[in-house]
Design brief:
Length: 202
């Protein structure tokens, strides 16, 4: 994919911000950079699967935050995402797949949420659930292979397409990953098509 441009608010990058403000600013910048990899270089061809690229970007950003600011800050940010999703989602909430069909992150259904980031946070948590299931090292191998393949396939203008089927197929091939067809079917029905709230221990 071609080079991207990041536009950040002057208030966000101001040197006068305190410690918490600096963490917020750097976290936003890291997320924006991660979305150049997952969202631009690697993208989902189907609207209902856009959560996957968004979640992979969140996973990458979370690792950078934990490495740069420490594991405690990383765990805190994940717990805040989980708290927001649990507080906002209920049986009447649109599923993440349905919202993706309407335009992930911009859907009309987002008007019912207090925070416009709730579905993006849920996508991050769903990818984290898959990583917890496969294990960190096997998961990183899968993601690394996807990125390396995308870099080879792209000619500089069009991003590499990644479907959920392809992603889960790669994950299922990881030795002892525990990601079999039955697990994938229940995962899809419960969390993607359904309206369940992720449960992640941080």
């Amino acid at each position: 994919a071609g080079a991207g441009v990041l536009l950040l608010s002057e208030d966000l990058v101001s040197g006068e911000r305190g410690t918490l403000g600096q963490i917020e600013a750097k976290t936003c910048a890291v997320r924006a950079l991660a979305e150049q990899w997952f969202g631009v270089l690697v993208r989902s061809p189907l609207a209902e699967e856009r959560w996957l690229a968004s979640g992979l970007a969140g996973s990458l950003a979370g690792k950078v935050v934990a490495k740069h600011f420490g594991e405690n800050e990383g765990a805190y940010q994940w717990s805040r995402k989980l708290d927001l999703v649990v507080a906002e989602q209920d049986d009447a909430s649109p599923s993440i797949a349905h919202t993706g069909q309407a335009g992930f992150g911009l859907a009309q259904e987002l008007q019912r949420y207090t925070s416009s980031h709730v579905l993006r946070h849920k996508a991050d948590l769903l990818v984290w659930m898959v990583e917890n299931r496969t294990g960190a090292e096997p998961f990183q191998k899968v993601v690394k292979a996807i990125v390396q393949g995308a870099l080879k396939e792209t000619s500089g203008t069009v991003g590499c397409r990644l479907t959920c089927e392809d992603f889960f197929h790669r994950a299922a091939k990881v030795f002892d990953s525990g990601v079999d067809k039955n697990w994938l079917q229940s995962f899809n029905e419960r969390w993607i098509v359904g309206r369940g709230c992720p449960h992640v221990v941080v």
